[in-house]
Amino acid sequence: MEQEYSITEEINHYLDILFPITRSLTGKGNRETLRVIQEIIPLKIKEVPSGTKVYDWIVPDEWNIKGAWIKDRSGSTLVDMANCNLHVVSYSEPVKMIMDWDQLRPKLNWIDELPDAVPYRTSYYKRDWGFCVTKDQYDAIREAGTVEVFIDSEFSQGSLSYGEILIPGKSEKEILISCYICHPSMANDSLSGVILTAFIARSLMSDQPELMHSYRIIFVPETIGAITYCATHEEQIKELVAGLVITTVGGPGKYGYKQSFEKNHDINGIIESVLNEMDIDFITYPFDVYGSDERQYSSQGFRVNVASITRDKYYEYDYYHTSLDNLDYVKAKNISESYDIYRRIIARLDRNLTYDTVQKYCEPMFGKRNLYPSLGGGLLPPEEEMDDLDCMLWLNYFCDGTHSLFGISEAIGATVEQLHRIARILESRGLLKLLL
Ligand code: ZN
Fold this sequence. Notes:
Oligomer: single chain
Number of strands: 19
Distance between the termini: 44 Å
Radius of gyration: 25 Å
Helix content: 25-40%
Strand order of the largest sheet: 1-10-12-11-13-16-14-15
Bound molecules: zinc ion
């Protein structure tokens, strides 16, 4: 008999599998991560060769690492990447040498205020190397004086890997969902968003017959991956209706959302309406040029409104970019709660359509289409505050091709879902037409 797992159990399973993998901008760990995601959704894995010019950037050489350590003169291991993949600065060049304390010290990163944490550092675009250590390890290396340092890494003319899944709806108008796959063993930053995105994609696939919009869902390394994707899908990005960057959704702390660059854009209003309805206390982060891949999608030339709903947002929590952002800190239950919120937001975004009237002037005659009597009876669910007749008249009033259903819902106090239901009736009676 097939066993049913809850979404929380599934998320937990994938946290355990994906957390230990060494990811970076490129490399085997990214491919392995995408292959694991393929167990959840039929993701297409694409490769863009190193050296490809993408706007002002170049896809870097592929980086892979087998191991790294620091040993004292007696051969005892002081630091070993096998214990924590954050120990090595990502994109470190290979090194094997004997060093004394003064030489090694500038290559060490640690955090005074979090002595037990291993910081996360990268050197993607400048050839360099380094180690990240706890305060105890730092002290032990200093005491050891002379040590042997080894980084078994390799650069090659390989490729940058990303994952993509397109889920077509009734309209060709697309909503982007983007997450980044480049962080090694940290659970809230990056991984929680990757897993949540995969499950959102799976739920959209099962809702597909009902979807009004199409969905472009991508798993890219942050910044260079998003830029590469934009450069190779320029026309598609320009046409996007809106987008979501999903990251840091699994912490124990407060919900927040980063607004898209147009404060009054529907995506921001929809997010707030859902969070308020769910009685969630949240922090609003206005759009900022610092952040994640919304920076690329919202940049000059594209200007797509992209927002993020977070739980312990990047930059904001103490364990951000450290080894303490781990599976003690992040729980599947938190990600699963964020998943429910994203599902509701996306469902509302999906139904946020714009209709135009067929009658150019004055009110249509509802009576001859049997709309008055039918709306007075069976079509009226009593729990909704605005009755269906009100919605019909207001929809007829507003729908001139310039008002979204969310805009109308805000103006009259009905829900997008209710308006969408009535608009479809009016559409079926030839009174409204959907602008797709
Ligand atoms: Zn990060």
